[in-house]
Amino acid sequence: MRSAEHEMLGSLTGRDERPERIKVWDPVVRLFHWALMGLFAFSFFTGDEWKSAHILSGYVIGSLVAIRVLWGFFGSEHARFVNFVRNPLTVLGFLADTARMRAKRYIGHNPAGGFMVIALLLMIVGIVTTGYMMTTDTYWGVEWVEDTHKTLVYSTLALIVLHVLGVLLASIEHRENLVRAMITGWKRRN
User: Fold this and answer.
1) Residue 22: strand pairing partners
2) What is the DSSP secondary structure assignment for residue 104, as one 8-state letter?
3) For residue 128, what are the contacts with CB-CB under 8 A and spacing of at least 6?
4) Taking CA atoms, which of 31, 92, 108, 182 is between 20 and 30 Å from 77?
């Protein structure tokens, strides 16, 4: 525990005792993010060419999503859904502020980023579910299941492009390398 004298000395010398950086993204969030990115790309490129690897990748992706959903309820502060899922009006307001380059900076996910996390998780769950369905006797060769699977994959690719553009825009707007933060886990405190 810091003494009052220590705090007074810190403020007199102009030194703030708080570190300039803060650990935001824990290892579970970071490993999930990069593993999902790699496995999604792997699955995309192996879909019609290497079925057994594609299916195995789908099972791993499904397991990763299950872990992330649990972590969204029981994980570290910035990993919990309650800390970044906002109502649609808040997300729209944030996007309007972003368009004017005056959006509030968030330590964790901003409202648009939180929306994107949920959207991507739901899309991946749909992809995994329809992919699994295609391996069963009941749905093997059923056209609507295959069409839905492909539609979800390409819709997810569109969301990924929006996600990357959003990360780049937020990085520019707030002068902060968000890609590096997702690698190291650290962000600037202020």
Assistant:
1) 187
2) P
3) 58, 61, 62, 65
4) 92
Of 133, 111, 131, nearest to 123 (Cα)? 131
What's at 65, amino acid-wise? V
Residue ranges in the chain modelled with pLDDT below 70: 1-18
Which tokens sit at 17?
């005792």
Which residue is listed with tokens 């502060």?
Answer: 77
C-beta separation of 131 from 68 below 8 A: no
Short-list 150, 149, 159, CA closest to 129: 149
Give backbone dihedrals phi and psi of 186, rounded to 5 degrees, phi first: -100, 140
Rounded Cα distance, 159 and 164, in Å: 9
Give the DSSP letter of residue 186: E
Amino acid at position 130, single letter: T
Per-residue pLDDT, 9: 44
